[in-house]
Amino acid sequence: MSxxxxxIKFTFLTAAALLLGACGTNEQEASSHVTSNDSDLPYIGIxxxxxxxxxxxxxxxxxDQLAEEGYVDGKTATIDxxxxxxxxxxxxxxxxxxxxxxxxxxxGIATPAAQALANATKDIxxxxxxxTDPLAANxxxxxxxxxxxxxxxxxxxxxxxQFDLIMxxxxxxxxxxxxxxxSEDNSLSSAKEAEAIAASLGLKVVTKTVNSANDIxxxxxxxxxxxxxxxxxxxxIIATSTLSLIEATDAYQIPVFPSxxxxxxxxxxxxxxxxxxxxxxxxxxxxADILEGADPSTYxxxxxxxxxxxxxxxxxxxxxxxxxxxxxxxARIIE
Length: 335
Known about the structure:
Elements: E1 11-13, E2 30-32, E3 43-48, H1 53-68, E4 78-83, H2 88-100, E5 105-109, H3 111-120, E6 126-129, E7 150-153, H4 159-169, E8 175-181, H5 185-200, E9 204-210, H6 216-224, E10 229-231, H7 236-240, H8 242-250, E11 256-257, H9 261-265, E12 270-273, H10 276-291, E13 308-312, H11 313-318, H12 325-329, E14 332-334
Parallel strand pairs: 3-4, 3-5, 5-6, 6-7, 8-9, 8-10, 10-11, 13-14
Antiparallel strand pairs: 1-2, 2-4, 12-13
Helix pairs in contact: 1-10, 2-3, 6-8
């Protein structure tokens, strides 16, 4: 899913241009929607970690829902959308930008973006957009009563349901591979849960981690030679290079079970996951609630109400995997 919105357009700037007067340059560019801060309008700063279909869909959902709630960029609100392109220094500069512009509220899309905002301010409300485990990421004191200036929406995945699906589609499964980035708290949290579930099913687990997207082709090829299937949690680094992962695993006829819908669309076999656009809509609703006076310290972390079974039928045919009719009947089919 591509991100298209009539009022929000990405342009590409160097990291130095994110803050007027910032010193030095950065080879990693950040993309942003630059808009003036009209003091008569509420200023909403949105930081997206990087560009990939899952995060783009979340951002789209936030913008659309804010418009539904009456916050339209340039008319009834100033929406400053910044894309850090996965670079830590960009995240810090974007957070400082929002603070210097006296933002009324900020939104962090993905765990590292939310952490950068939380490290920068304890005063401006911060809304979490798709944070798997806010507790493990040290963003809140409690899920029911966050206790500070941070609240929002978790995209905690239904790991047990995902493994039920994996076992149904690959009943002969003996060894499963886990692939994720060791630097993302959200991935580590989900992987710990998955390890316990795999052990209870009598599966052998082979885990490999990456430090950057550049590592994925080689690591994925190595993993594909050792396992019968690969499971991937919600991981931003992996998601940015889904096609590289799938190219490597297809060469060995190994199915990949991602945790988000967009990665199935890009070549994964199947998942029981969350609709990323819907998560964005829910995040937009929380943002509007806080703007209108709700206290983030007592506003409980929200969770998506529904999961979605998604099957890539073409991929199943290419991998010679037969999908039971009862599974197909209840699934959204990717052709």
